[in-house]
């Protein structure tokens, strides 16, 4: 009997394994762009709307219900792109060897993005090393500068072009995020003893924020601080009840430095889960400044019953979004900025399924967003960034299904005020 049960168990396990194999194989088949995406790739990039950029707004910004608004109550929709490198092994935003920082800023604006999420590592602040001149070949005026000097110069170049900046504490150790190193899983790592090459207490983390942001406090187009990238613990766990108070302590220090900054607090479970806000919102000394952030990728949702987002039908995907963060928008509770999402230039069917579902939802709720990333290559390895939005010259746009959909997302539906007026009439 035991042998029979064992054989039956093995057969069932083999059958399940084969089913999973077939499902994964189907998801990995290359996706063929539809006719509209192909037509977009052959057309000139539409001109961005100047009224969506920060110089046309009355500062400072505040939050009102689910929106970020200016001093007149006009919504400032965050249509952002990530520009990484400062948090990585070379300590410098990428592309400065290819193109002047002001030219990259103009390219970002030309693509229609009104804001940039600019990551840094704590190690960059601690060490502040001189930057290799080869990495600044197209910015000779910065040769001889340290990492913090270059970071500040990039910020100033962006804001000079009317592009708002959100600074992001991405990782503790200067490296690609996010791996399995527990030293980088949260804002502090002193509970790990002497394990970490870059040790950090919570007080250190906050001091690094203050040190960096003190350089930028006079720039009105530096609009916010994204406190920490993708907090997580062992096996992706991190209780919101631990993260929220730490975010409040850091946010309070930054508000003392500049009361007009938006304080952006990411979700747990690698940035995807903000369900804890319903029970325990982040409260700062100065109100109407908290923006929550979620990250949504094809592989997100791996710990949920419905599985990864690449494999879900829309109904399941939408239900997960509502549960994790969409309820904050639906209830007009607080703004949520989807600060990271992305898809490759050559997507699989799973990638395309995730992307279609995400775009459908983001457009439906008129969400603030931040695409990962503009970079054409990864620092250090020079590996091609498959999520890139520009070619290696840091100027030529990659016009495909992603930019087509994001232009629609930037435009958004008719404003809620217009919809309400039409409904009343």
From TrEMBL:
InterPro entries: GH, Glyco_hydro_5
Glycoside hydrolase family domain mapped to chain residues: 82-376
Swiss-Prot/TrEMBL keywords: Glycosidase, Hydrolase
S-adenosyl-L-methionine found in the keyword field: no
GO biological process terms held by the UniProt record: polysaccharide catabolic process
A single MF term (Gene Ontology): hydrolase activity, hydrolyzing O-glycosyl compounds
Recorded superkingdom: Eukaryota
UniProt keyword annotation of Endoplasmic reticulum present: no
Matching Pfam families: Cellulase
Family classification: Belongs to the glycosyl hydrolase 5 (cellulase A) family.
Record-linked PANTHER family: CELLULASE FAMILY PROTEIN (AFU_ORTHOLOGUE AFUA_5G14560)
Protein's recorded name: Related to endo-beta-1,4-glucanase
Source organism: Cephalotrichum gorgonifer
């Amino acid at each position: 009997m035991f042998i029979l049960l064992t054989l039956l168990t093995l057969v069932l396990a083999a059958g399940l394994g084969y089913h999973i194999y077939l499902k994964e194989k189907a998801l990995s088949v290359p996706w063929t762009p539809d006719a509209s995406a192909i037509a977009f790739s052959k057309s000139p990039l539409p001109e961005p709307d100047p009224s969506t950029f920060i110089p046309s707004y009355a500062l400072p910004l505040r939050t009102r219900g689910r929106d970020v608004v200016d001093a007149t109550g006009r919504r400032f929709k965050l249509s952002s792109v990530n520009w990484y490198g400062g948090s990585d092994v070379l300590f410098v935003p990428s592309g400065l060897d290819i193109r002047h920082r002001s030219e990259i800023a103009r390219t970002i604006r030309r693509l229609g993005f009104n804001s940039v999420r600019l990551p840094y590592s704590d190690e960059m602040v601690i060490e502040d090393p001189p930057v290799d001149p080869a990495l600044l070949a197209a910015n000779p005026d910065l040769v001889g500068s340290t990492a913090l000097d270059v970071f500040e110069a990039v910020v100033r170049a962006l804001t000079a072009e009317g592009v708002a900046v959100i600074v992001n504490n991405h990782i503790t150790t200067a490296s690609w995020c996010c791996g399995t190193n527990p030293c980088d899983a949260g804002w502090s790592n002193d509970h790990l003893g002497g394990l970490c090459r870059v040790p950090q207490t919570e007080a250190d983390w906050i001091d690094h924020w203050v040190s960096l942001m003190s350089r930028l406090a006079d720039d009105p187009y530096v609009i916010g601080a994204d406190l920490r990238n993708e907090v997580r613990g062992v096996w992706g766990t991190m209780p919101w009840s631990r993260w929220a108070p730490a975010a409040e302590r850091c946010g309070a220090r930054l508000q003392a430095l500049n009361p007009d900054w938006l304080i952006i607090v990411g979700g747990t479970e690698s940035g995807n889960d903000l369900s804890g806000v319903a029970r325990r919102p982040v409260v700062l000394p100065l109100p109407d400044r908290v923006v929550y952030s979620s990250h949504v990728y094809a592989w997100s949702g791996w710990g949920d019953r419905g599985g990864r987002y690449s494999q879900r039908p829309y109904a399941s995907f939408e239900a997960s979004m509502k549960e994790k963060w969409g309820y904050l928008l639906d209830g007009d509770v607080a703004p949520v900025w989807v600060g990271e999402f992305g898809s490759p230039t050559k997507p699989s069917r799973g990638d395309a399924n995730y992307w279609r579902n995400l775009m459908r939802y983001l457009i439906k709720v008129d969400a603030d967003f931040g695409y990962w990333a503009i970079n054409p290559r990864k620092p250090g390895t020079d590996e091609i960034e498959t999520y890139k939005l520009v070619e290696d010259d840091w100027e030529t746009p990659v016009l495909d299904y992603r930019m087509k959909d994001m232009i629609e997302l930037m435009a958004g539906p008719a404003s809620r005020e217009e919809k309400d007026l039409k409904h009343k009439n």
